[in-house]
């Protein structure tokens, strides 16, 4: 697991008030009690952490390029954005 | 369409009336007895409901609850001191009535703090004390029939200030997603509605320094008219941050050393911060559940000077003071104490004294009027709420809070301003004045229970 992976997981776990070890990649944000505003807050924290810009609009979460269906897809999308930045 | 409907209703109405009369013609004494019964029972003869205050709560520079605030007022203690926040050294005015050593983590969890600006935090804390005292639980019908109306002038000013700093000074291009729900002026009212399940009329009023009095006047009228059974009301302000004080500095009405209302040596106002929240409850409802009624709200009046954006008008103030007494059906001689607007500026204090002198005539020499802003500072949109506490203390405990910092009489403020030391006195009815920038006036009247 990459450092980026762990840092994202930590942010999401903090938001869900869980331990990172409790999270599994197939879980959806809803599964761990993160509602739409919680997701916006997590994305803000991820943007701050990695100094990236996440293309996410809360009005049409499905149609953006950023896949938020599971924790795994979120982590993969963020890792891609971080990699593109360098 | 309405007119047509009313016409159609008319014959029916008179029919009903005549049916009633044929049964038994009431004598004048029995009618009077019914009216008296209604007043005792919690209704005025005109069908309006009486309004009880059954809870009060506060946080301000004098204390973090009502007992500590009352104690400070009794002792004439000053809560104004050196301001402590980021960039204070760039201010010319460095004193205020600040809530010392404020640590939000003591009262709220991380998720709450993300959503609560300081003005909301203060409101929630004051409301907790007030609702606990009232003993009310807003379940079922009561939740639907209860609401919240609060006053604030600047709402989430700290949130504006911090985030402007982020984007302007630090040049960052991203702000936290909850900046808007945190800073909006109705945030505190909305959080109270959520905290207690209040689903009735709920909103926020912003009329600068009269915001809380307007809010409490609205709450009073809503309970009085039967539109709500219980209203949480009062107000909150948290403007003591660099941008908040800097803006006031610009007006050049601020004192750099102390707030000395009505004293010839006064040199301006001093800002404060905090909140006051009250439970206004339908009298019958309060009596039926055996609540401890702290005071009765009996009158309210509001008006606009329609004159100047900053200079107060004695005529407008007098009209509002008189209006509140008329609304309360109180004669001037019945008023024993006025909590003054008393900002400590040259303009306000002499205008207010002239207004009171005109409104009360000879009785102006008998009544006491103090400005507790000398102790807790001017809480702007929250000030009327904290000042209503001094009114309740006067009615309930027979203690008149003093105007501290009083050094020299001013012939233009020749009233009994209860200088420097609290006084024991029995009063049956009181007024609380608020005269805002923009010429908006709001006066509320309370009576002893």
UniProtKB/TrEMBL annotation, chain A:
A Pfam family: PP-binding
InterPro entries: ACP-like_sf, PP-bd_ACP, Ppantetheine_attach_site
Keyword Phosphoprotein: yes
UniProt protein name: Acyl carrier protein
TM helices/strands, residue ranges: none
Ranges for domain Carrier: 2-82
Signal peptide: none
UniProt xrefs under SUPFAM superfamilies: ACP-like (SSF47336)
Alphabetic keyword roster: Phosphopantetheine, Phosphoprotein
């Amino acid at each position: 697991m990459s450092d980026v992976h762990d840092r994202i997981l930590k942010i999401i776990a903090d938001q869900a008030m869980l331990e990172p070890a409790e999270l599994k990649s197939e879980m959806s944000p809803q599964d761990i009690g993160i509602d739409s505003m919680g997701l916006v807050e997590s994305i803000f924290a991820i943007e701050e952490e990695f100094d990236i810009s996440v293309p996410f609009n809360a009005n049409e979460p499905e149609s953006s390029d950023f896949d938020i269906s599971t924790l795994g897809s979120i982590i993969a999308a963020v890792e891609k954005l971080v990699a593109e930045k360098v | 369409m309405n007119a047509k409907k009313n016409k159609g209703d008319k014959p029916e109405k008179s029919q009903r009336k005549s049916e009633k009369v044929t049964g038994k013609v009431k004598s004048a004494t029995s009618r009077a007895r019914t009216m008296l019964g209604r007043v005792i029972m919690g209704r005025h003869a005109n069908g309006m409901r009486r309004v009880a205050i059954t809870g009060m709560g506060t946080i301000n520079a004098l204390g973090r609850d009502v007992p500590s605030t009352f104690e400070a007022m009794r002792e004439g203690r000053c809560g104004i001191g050196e301001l402590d926040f980021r960039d204070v050294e760039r201010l010319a005015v460095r004193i205020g009535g600040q809530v010392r050593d404020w640590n939000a983590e003591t009262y709220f969890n991380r998720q709450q703090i993300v959503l609560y600006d300081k003005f909301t935090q203060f409101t929630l804390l004051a409301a907790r004390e007030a609702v606990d005292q009232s003993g009310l639980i807003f379940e079922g019908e009561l939740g639907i029939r209860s609401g919240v109306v609060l006053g604030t002038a600047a709402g989430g000013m700290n949130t504006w200030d911090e985030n402007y700093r982020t984007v302007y000074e630090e040049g960052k291009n991203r702000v936290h997603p909850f900046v808007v729900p945190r800073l909006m002026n109705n945030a505190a009212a909305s959080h109270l509605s959520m905290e207690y399940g209040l689903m009735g009329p709920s909103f926020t009023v912003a009329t600068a320094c009269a915001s809380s009095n307007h809010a409490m006047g609205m709450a009073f009228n809503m309970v009085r008219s039967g539109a709500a059974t219980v209203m949480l009301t009062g107000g909150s302000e948290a403007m003591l941050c660099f941008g908040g004080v800097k803006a006031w500095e610009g007006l050049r009405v601020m004192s750099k050393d102390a707030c000395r209302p009505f004293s010839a040596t006064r040199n301006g106002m001093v800002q404060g911060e905090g909140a006051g929240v009250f439970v206004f409850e339908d009298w019958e409802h309060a009596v039926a559940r055996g609540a401890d009624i702290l005071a009765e709200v009996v009158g309210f009046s509001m008006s606009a000077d329609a004159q100047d954006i900053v200079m107060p008008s004695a005529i407008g103030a007098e009209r509002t003071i008189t209006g509140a007494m008329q609304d309360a059906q109180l004669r001037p001689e019945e008023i024993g104490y006025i909590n003054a607007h008393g900002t400590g500026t040259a303009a306000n204090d002499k205008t207010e004294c002239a207004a009171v002198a005109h409104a009360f005539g000879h009785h102006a020499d008998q009544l006491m009027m103090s400005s507790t802003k000398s102790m807790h500072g001017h809480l702007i949109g929250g000030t009327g709420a904290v000042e209503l506490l001094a009114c309740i203390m006067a009615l309930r405990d027979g203690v008149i809070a003093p105007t501290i910092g009083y050094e020299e009489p001013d012939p233009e403020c020749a009233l009994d301003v209860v200088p420097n030391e609290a006084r024991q006195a029995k009063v049956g009815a009181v007024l609380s004045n608020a005269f805002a920038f923009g010429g908006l006036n709001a006066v509320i009247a309370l009576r002893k229970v």
